[in-house]
């Protein structure tokens, strides 16, 4: 049985959030907290942010979550945990090997290579434990590497100082939808949510292409400079912008006649200009139509 993982998966329906159940005071606090955490994150971004959000890795994580029948939010949470862990772990490795010569680079590479797959699995495991609707331990029995996976899970937690409950993109989308539905009762929030889940997934799977198109549109340069790319990282890491952008795309697809009203409401909620929201929506919609026509 070495090298194999046997899954025993319970059949269950996808759990969707219940909108309109949260009091206004709590909802206001949640939105304010997300906004503060987003701004704090944007103050500390580097040009290395997003390096692990490669489409192949994102697809692998999403597929793993689907196989385990986990809530979609788990996939996004796992990606955030994995990226933060690998950045900090690599930084610690480099610091520990400083002054060891060229051989240290190969040692660091081999260490990362050896731990990477289990790091992905352990990140999903941790993310599932943070989600109220996911029970990975009940749906999956790992017959191999169980001890190693647990050890790496502990390593991730310690490396990140147990700070793993960070907001993920879907949290922003669902919170903004909740506020949108509260402000404008005619908005079909539940229907938009279903579309948003699909749009957000597409944006994450095609992240590099979509954000490159946004960068080209913003700079007017077909080949943006390194400096322009470095400055644009704050855009690629802005979850609030991503949230309103995804909702605006979903609103356009759902009913174009009410799209501008939704964009106006999102601007009022977040302070993000309607032009920025529409530009994000335009680039994403163009990418969707190109993808469908291929």
TrEMBL record:
Q: Name one GO biological process term.
A: reciprocal meiotic recombination
Show the GO cellular component annotation of the record: site of double-strand break
InterPro entries referenced in this protein's UniProt entry, alphabetically: Cyclin-like_sf
Q: Which domain of life is it from?
A: Eukaryota
PANTHER family (alphabetical): CYCLIN N-TERMINAL DOMAIN-CONTAINING PROTEIN 1
Protein name as annotated: Cyclin N-terminal domain-containing protein 1
Q: Which organism is it from?
A: Onychostoma macrolepis
């Amino acid at each position: 049985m070495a090298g194999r993982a046997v899954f025993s998966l319970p059949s269950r329906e996808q759990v969707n959030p219940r909108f309109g159940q949260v009091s206004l005071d709590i909802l206001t606090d949640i939105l304010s907290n997300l906004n503060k955490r987003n701004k704090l994150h944007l103050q500390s971004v580097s040009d290395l942010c997003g390096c692990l959000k490669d489409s192949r890795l994102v697809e692998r994580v999403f597929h793993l979550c689907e196989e385990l029948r986990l809530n979609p939010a788990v996939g996004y949470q796992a990606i955030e945990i994995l990226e933060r862990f690998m950045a900090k772990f690599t930084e610690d490795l480099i610091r520990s090997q400083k002054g060891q010569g060229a051989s240290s680079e190969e040692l660091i590479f081999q260490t990362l290579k050896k731990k990477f797959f289990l790091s992905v699995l352990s990140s999903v495991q941790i993310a599932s434990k943070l989600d109220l609707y996911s029970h990975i331990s009940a749906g999956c029995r790992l017959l191999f590497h169980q001890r190693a996976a647990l050890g790496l899970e502990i390593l991730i937690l310690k490396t990140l100082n147990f700070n793993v409950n960070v907001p993920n993109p879907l949290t922003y989308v669902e919170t903004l939808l909740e506020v949108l539905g509260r402000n404008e009762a005619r908005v079909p929030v539940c229907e938009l949510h279903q579309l948003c889940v699909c749009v957000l997934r597409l944006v994450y799977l095609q992240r590099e292409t979509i954000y490159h198109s946004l960068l080209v549109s913003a700079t007017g340069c077909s080949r943006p400079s390194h400096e322009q790319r470095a400055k644009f990282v704050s855009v690629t890491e802005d979850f609030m912008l991503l949230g309103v952008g995804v909702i605006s795309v979903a609103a356009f697809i759902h009913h174009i006649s009410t799209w501008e009203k939704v964009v106006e409401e999102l601007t009022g909620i977040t302070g993000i200009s309607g032009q920025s929201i529409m530009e994000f929506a335009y680039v994403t919609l163009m990418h969707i139509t190109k993808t469908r026509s291929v």
